[in-house]
Design brief:
Elements lengths: L1 H23 L3 H22 L3 E9 L13 H4 L2 H8 L2 H11 L5 H7 L1 E4 L6 E8 L2 H54 L4 H29 L5 E5 L12 H25 L7 H8 L3 E5 L15 H14 L2 H4 L3 E5 L6 H16 L3 E6 L7 H4 L2 E5 L19 E5 L5 E5 L7 H5 L2 H7 L7 E6 L8 H5 L5 E6 L6 H13 L3 E8 L6 H20 L12 E3 L5 E3 L10
Parallel strand pairs: 5-13, 6-11, 6-12, 7-10, 7-11, 12-13
Antiparallel strand pairs: 1-3, 1-4, 2-3, 8-9, 9-10, 14-15
Length: 564
C-alpha cells in the first residue's frame, strides 16, 4: 500500500510542476517587464562598455629584509594583502598619481574611482586595472598609479625605519655617555674592590651599547623596496565591454530570471485560487465544470450546440450520479459575492439540462430583492398551481403569483417560480409556503433548482440551506479569494447543508451577458409572446386572506408534476 502511495505521489509531481508553471504564465506582464528591464540593462552595458578600455599592471610585494635569500623569511606573514589592497585604492595613491601625470586636483576622484585592485588567491601580487575611454590614457594612468603606490609604500617603510633608528639612537646616547664617565672614574680609582665593581658596571654598559649598535646597523642594512613591477601597462587594443549582442543576451536571460522570480512572489502572495485544485481544496468538494468565456448567457442549453451547452450537460450528469444529490434532487446555486449573473446562468442551464433527461424541473428564483428572471427568459405560458389555493393563515406574499413555463427549445420546458419584491425577505424565505414548494422534489421524477443571492452579500441562501441542502458554488477564480470560499463552506456546513462542488467560469466582457440575453429575447421572445398567448387556467382563482395591514397574500399549495 505504501509503495503504491509513493508511486502515485511520484507521478503527481511532474503534473504539479506543470501546473505551477502554467500558473506563473498568468503573470505574463511581470515576466515581460523583467525581460524588458534586463534588455534595457544589457543595452546600457553594451553601449557604455563599447568605448571603455582597461590597462593592467602587476606588482609582487615583498617585506623589508637584509637578506632576501634567507630560507626562514616569510613575507606572506609580514604582509597583510587586504591592507595593501586598501592602501592601493586610497586617495593618497591617487593624489601621488595626479602629481606624476601633472593633472589638477579635480582628477583625483576620477583616478580613484576608475581604478580596481585585486589580489589573486595565495599570492603576494596586486593586480591594478584602470579603465578609461582612451586606450593610451588608460595605460599611462595605470603606470602612474602603480608607481605612486610603490613610492607611497617605500616612503612609509622609510618613515618607520627612521623612527626606529631615532628611538635606538636615543637609547644609545645616554648609555654611551654613562660609559665615558665611568671610564674616567675608573682611571682615578685605586686598585681594589671599588675598581672591580666599576669594571663590572662598565662591562654591562658595553654589552648594552653593543646590542643597540647592532640593531641600528641591522636597520640601516635593510632593503626597503616594497615590491617589484612584474608587468607594465600595455595599450589595450580592444574595448573592455562584452559587446552589444552578448550584453543583450545576458540582459535577456537575467530579465527572464527576474520576471519569473517576480511572478513567483506574486503567485505566492496571490489570495485568489491559482487552479481548480485550489478551489476544490477551499470548498472541500470537486470542481464539477469549468465554463468557457462567454458562457454566462441566460439560456444556452437547448438553443445552441456549443461547448458551453455540453459543459452544462456534463455538470448535470455529474450531479445526477452524485448520491448526495440523487437522494433528494434539491440544488441551491449561489455565488460568493457581487453579481448574480453567473449563478443565474448556471441555475437556468442546469434546469434545462435536467429537463433534457426527462425530469420535471422547477426553477425557483429566491432573489426577492432584484428579481429579473421572468423578464430575461422565454416565458410561454402562465398557470395557477394548486399550492396557491390553500387555506389558512398567510405568512408572506411570495411565491403567490404562480408558476411560469419556460421554453428551453429542444431541451423541452421547465417550471419557473419567479422572485418578487416582498416586505420581509427573511420571513418569505423561511415561510411554510416556501418549504412546501421546495418539497416538490420529493416526487421521484421532480428536481428543484433554487438560485439565491450571493452568500457573502446576503444571508438569503443560508435561510434555504436546511431545506435545499445540496449547494453548488459558482465562482470566477480570478475575482474570488480562497478565504471567501472557505468562509462560504463553513457557513453552509454550519447551517446544515452540503457543498456538492463548484463551477468555475471566466469573467465575461462587460455587457456580454446582457447583450446575448437581449438578442435571444428579440429572436424568440417577441414571436412567442405574440403567437402563443398565455393559456387560460382551468383552476379556480386562489383564495386570498387579508393580512393584518389590510393587504392580501396568496396562500401556499403543493405543486405536483402533473400541474406543470
Amino acid at each position: 500500500m505504501s509503495n503504491t502511495h509513493v508511486q502515485v505521489r511520484g507521478e503527481d509531481e511532474p503534473e504539479q510542476l506543470r501546473e505551477q508553471f502554467r500558473q506563473l504564465l498568468r503573470y505574463r506582464w511581470l515576466i515581460g517587464g523583467g525581460v524588458g528591464v534586463g534588455l534595457l540593462a544589457g543595452a546600457w552595458l553594451g553601449i557604455t562598455g563599447a568605448d571603455s578600455y582597461a590597462a593592467t599592471t602587476d606588482i609582487v610585494l615583498r617585506a623589508p629584509s637584509s637578506d632576501p635569500f634567507a630560507p626562514t623569511l616569510s613575507s606572506d606573514k609580514a604582509i597583510n594583502m587586504g591592507s595593501e589592497r586598501q592602501t592601493a585604492l586610497s586617495r593618497k595613491v591617487a593624489e601621488g598619481a595626479a602629481k606624476r601625470l601633472g593633472t589638477g586636483a579635480d582628477e583625483v576622484d576620477r583616478l580613484q574611482h576608475a581604478l580596481q585592485v585585486t589580489n589573486p588567491p595565495q599570492t603576494l601580487v596586486l593586480h591594478f586595472t584602470y579603465t578609461a575611454s582612451d586606450p593610451k590614457e588608460a595605460a599611462r594612468r595605470a603606470d602612474a598609479l602603480t608607481q605612486s603606490y610603490i613610492d607611497l609604500r617605500q616612503e612609509q617603510w622609510e618613515s618607520v625605519r627612521g623612527s626606529m633608528l631615532k628611538s635606538l639612537q636615543d637609547q644609545l646616547d645616554p648609555v654611551a655617555k654613562q660609559n665615558d664617565e665611568l671610564s674616567r672614574r675608573i682611571k682615578q680609582l685605586p686598585n681594589g674592590s671599588a675598581a672591580d665593581s666599576a669594571y663590572a658596571v662598565q662591562a654591562n654598559l658595553l654589552n648594552r651599547i653593543t646590542d643597540l649598535r647592532s640593531k641600528i646597523t641591522s636597520l640601516k642594512a635593510l632593503d626597503m623596496t616594497p615590491g617589484n613591477v612584474i608587468r607594465n601597462a600595455a595599450v589595450p587594443t580592444s574595448s573592455d565591454g562584452p559587446g552589444l549582442p552578448l550584453s543583450l543576451g545576458l540582459g535577456g536571460l537575467g530579465g527572464v530570471g527576474l520576471g519569473l522570480l517576480a511572478a513567483w512572489v506574486r503567485l505566492v502572495f496571490d489570495p485568489a485560487p491559482r487552479s481548480a485544485g485550489d478551489v476544490a481544496r477551499a470548498v472541500r468538494g470537486p470542481v464539477l465544470g469549468a465554463l468557457p468565456r462567454g458562457a454566462a448567457g441566460a439560456l444556452v442549453v437547448g438553443r445552441t450546440d456549443s461547448r458551453a451547452a455540453e459543459e452544462y450537460r456534463s455538470i448535470a450528469f455529474r450531479l445526477a450520479y452524485d448520491d448526495r444529490f440523487a437522494d433528494r434532487r434539491r440544488l441551491l446555486v449561489v455565488a460568493p459575492r457581487g453579481s448574480m449573473e453567473s449563478s443565474v446562468a448556471v441555475a437556468v442551464n442546469l434546469a434545462a439540462s435536467f429537463a433534457e433527461t426527462g425530469k420535471n424541473v422547477l426553477l425557483v428564483e429566491a432573489d426577492l430583492r432584484t428579481p429579473s428572471l421572468s423578464e430575461r427568459l422565454d416565458v410561454s405560458a402562465a398557470s395557477r398551481p394548486r399550492w396557491s389555493r390553500t387555506g389558512g393563515h398567510v405568512e408572506s406574499e411570495w411565491p403567490g403569483r404562480g408558476q411560469l413555463v419556460v421554453d428551453a427549445g429542444e431541451s423541452g420546458a421547465f417550471g419557473l417560480i419567479p422572485g418578487e419584491r416582498v416586505r420581509n425577505v427573511p420571513r418569505a424565505l423561511t415561510s411554510a409556503r416556501t418549504t412546501q414548494l421546495i418539497a416538490e422534489a420529493d416526487d421521484p421524477d421532480a428536481t428543484v433548482v433554487v438560485v439565491a443571492p450571493p452568500v457573502l452579500a446576503y444571508a438569503d441562501a443560508l435561510a434555504l440551506v436546511d431545506r435545499v441542502d445540496g449547494v453548488l458554488i459558482v465562482c470566477d477564480p480570478r475575482t474570488v479569494h480562497r478565504a471567501d470560499l472557505v468562509r462560504i463552506r463553513e457557513l453552509i456546513v454550519g447551517a446544515g447543508g452540503t457543498v456538492l462542488g463548484a463551477v468555475t467560469h471566466a469573467k465575461s466582457r462587460r455587457g456580454e451577458t446582457a447583450a446575448a440575453t437581449r438578442r435571444g429575447n428579440r429572436r424568440r421572445g417577441r414571436k412567442s409572446s405574440a403567437a402563443r398567448p398565455a393559456a387560460p387556467s382551468t383552476r379556480p382563482e386562489p383564495d386570498r386572506y387579508p393580512d393584518g395591514d389590510g393587504s392580501n397574500t396568496i396562500a401556499l399549495g403543493t405543486v405536483r408534476s402533473g400541474d406543470w
